[in-house]
Design goal:
The protein is an alpha/beta fold. The protein has 13 helices and eight strands.
């Protein structure tokens, strides 16, 4: 049973959240990406709330700028520092009545949620016992590939479009005609793993109709994007290991059919994460949470028992 609530944070931001499970239990926090929303985690919230799967308190916020969460208009409000502040404050709030106040049992995150989770884990390792990343590159390997790999630069060219001031308006045109291909280009509506039925499309329409400025601002605010003749992008970014090293036990689940985030992003990851388990999933794409939620749940469940 999914419940919804608005979580006010001390610094003036409110995050619209979905949750399942009994308060007072160990907490799992699930972070979504672009162009999604918290509802993508509903199957996993219900799964891990069940006593036979750990009986966790499971919470999935809509990130700043998404759905009914606070959506500042200033692009600078979507830089890493304020986004990480949202998450550390949320962790404090939702773990207060747990057995480990201030600490999650596990932070689970995909895409942009994963990018933020890498930062939270690096900067605030005591905030979680374990970390699970689903198809979201570590900032150091992403910077390396964006700066040096023509393949990654081509795969990520969409990031420069999404950072444009007119991107939200263009994405909303003609029933979001430019957004659906993010899904359908990876067989979301065809083939054996198809998941984008009309009911799911309608859920996305509802979320996107609430506004796309916030979601696009993540791209506009980030320097991690492919270089262009007029913008050095990732080539101007330096990430010292001590700023991005993760000392939390980490599971990375990676759908190998992800055309936006090629497998090369996993190369060298063990140089930044001391305790690392990688599970490569053939036949899955970037949208593995939609395609194979039970497989994702099983991999996380095994990791939680480790």
């Amino acid at each position: 049973m999914i419940e919804t609530f608005q979580q006010a944070l001390p610094h003036g931001i409110t995050l619209s959240c979905r949750a399942a499970g009994q308060p007072g239990r160990p907490v799992l926090l699930f972070l979504h990406g672009f162009p999604e929303a918290a509802f993508v985690w509903d199957v996993l919230l219900d799964h891990f709330a069940q006593p036979e799967h750990g009986g966790y308190r499971c919470v999935a916020p809509n990130l700043r700028g998404f759905e009914h969460s606070s959506a500042p208009t200033d692009v600078a409000a979507y830089r890493a520092k304020p986004l990480v502040q949202d998450l550390t404050a949320l962790i404090e709030a939702i773990t207060q009545d747990s057995p480990t106040p201030g600490q999650l049992a596990c932070l689970v995150a995909h895409d942009w949620g994963g990018a933020l989770a890498w930062s939270v884990a690096a900067q605030h390792p005591a905030a979680m016992r374990q970390l699970t990343i689903v198809n979201a590159p570590h900032p150091a390997t992403f910077q390396r590939e964006l700066a040096n790999s023509p393949t990654q630069q081509a795969s990520s060219a969409y990031m420069n479009f999404l950072s444009r001031p007119d991107a939200p308006a263009l994405l909303a045109e003609n029933d979001f005609a430019r957004l659906w291909p993010f899904f359908t280009n990876m067989a979301a509506d065809s083939g054996p793993m198809a998941w984008l039925d009309e009911a799911t499309r309608e859920r996305y329409r509802e979320v996107w109709s609430l506004g796309l400025h916030g979601p696009c601002a993540y791209y506009a605010a980030s320097p991690l994007r492919p270089p262009t003749p007029n913008d050095p992008g990732a080539t101007a970014v330096q990430l010292p290991r001590e700023r991005v090293a993760v000392n939390v036990p980490t599971l990375v689940v990676w759908g190998l059919g992800d055309t936006a985030l090629p497998e090369a992003l996993l190369d060298g990851l063990d140089g930044y994460v001391d305790d690392l388990r990688i599970e490569r999933v053939p036949g899955a794409t970037h949208w593995i949470v939609h395609e194979q939620p039970q497989q994702v749940a099983a991999l996380i469940g095994d990791f939680l028992k480790a």
